[in-house]
Amino acid sequence: MLDYGFATFASKADLLDRAAAAWNPDKTRFWQQAGVDLVIDRREGYRLWDVEGRELIDVHLNGGTYNLGHRHPELVAALIEGTERFDVGNHHFPSIARTALAEALLRTAGPGMACVVFGAAGGEAIDVAIKTARHTTGRRRIVSIVKGYHGHTGLAVCTGDERFSRPFLAERPDEFAHVPFNDLDAMAAALARDDVAAVLLETIPATYGFPLPRPGYLAAVKALCEAHGTLYIADEVQTGLMRTGEMWGIHKARVQPDMIVAAKGLGGGLYPLSAVILSRPCARWLSEDGFAHMSTVAGAELGCVVGLKVLEITSRPEVRAGVERASARFADGLAAIRERHGGWLTGVRQDGLVMGLELAAPEGARDLMRALYERGVWAIFSTLDPSVLQFKPGLLVDDALVDEILDRLESAMEATA
Description:
Layout: E1 2-3, E2 8-9, H1 12-22, H2 25-33, E3 40-44, E4 47-50, E5 55-58, H3 73-82, H4 96-108, E6 113-119, H5 122-137, E7 141-145, H6 162-165, E8 176-179, H7 184-191, E9 196-202, H8 217-227, E10 231-235, H9 249-252, E11 259-262, E12 274-279, H10 284-288, H11 301-314, H12 317-340, E13 345-351, E14 354-359, H13 364-374, E15 377-378, E16 380-382, E17 385-391, H14 399-416
Parallel strand pairs: 5-15, 7-8, 7-9, 9-10, 10-11
Antiparallel strand pairs: 1-2, 3-4, 4-5, 6-12, 11-12, 13-14, 14-17, 16-17
């Protein structure tokens, strides 16, 4: 019997059956057929426990939502303390917590950034960024990359792979163009008519398996944007908040975008929160008509309280140093594993703690995911390239946990090779 007070299930099988009936039939069946019968119960730090007591190390982190771990005690304390004064708040009025977080984000965002618009999720923030680009430039077209991913909301879904837009008849080829990643000629051709409002890029495309930008690529895209009167939107939902060793991955490439989009880890895994950081020209609509975009729970005050603590922890020198140390330890460990299993682990894509493991088989990451799951590690294959395993350890991993993850990865490699 699984009794949680607010809900009771006869068994895990009963829970899965009821989830398939009332929640999401296809997704529930998919994971069972993939050999991942995971129903998360207790969670703490970088470890999860299934409802039947199975323990897993989390190196998926739900896309970076849990950069600082599950239920980080300082974040939990900030949320609880926040409830003594705050709730969601009222989106119409100036807010103590929203103002404080906006100011904190602007301090991280580089020169020329002026205002912050909050959301509740990454897709919502991408929608705001696209609307802002259209208002700022007077143009409609948006360029993103083939097999990109920026969320599932109304405008965001149009910028990503047709796998997500086609089921809902959301393809708009006249307004949304897609070019191959790392192809500057294709980008130049897409911008040549001077009718593009914005280029929207994940600094390292996550759902595509973290292909790394070639040296100079992002800076060259920014230069093309400037030459054609086009804005640059940096989607930092999965690469921001110190995952590459810098607060924003785009700054590591020495690029200052016109907008930075943050989400997932910004709410510390405790409160849904996203943000769009706008340059001064892009923020113009906020002075002209601040009611042009509204969202009741965007920038909920409790979420902003947590977000402030997330930024404070993430900005600590010891966290930056820990990311550098863990990144180097993973790089060395993965190189050693590749030496022994180079016919199976054909490549490692890594920038800090953003990693993609390339497997020799077209669906190889599915097999490795299952083998890792059986060995107590949760990592996920890349939806748009299942030959690559997304490998995303948290910012606060220590040496012992890095070694434990690498040992289990080696075992999974041996079993699947």
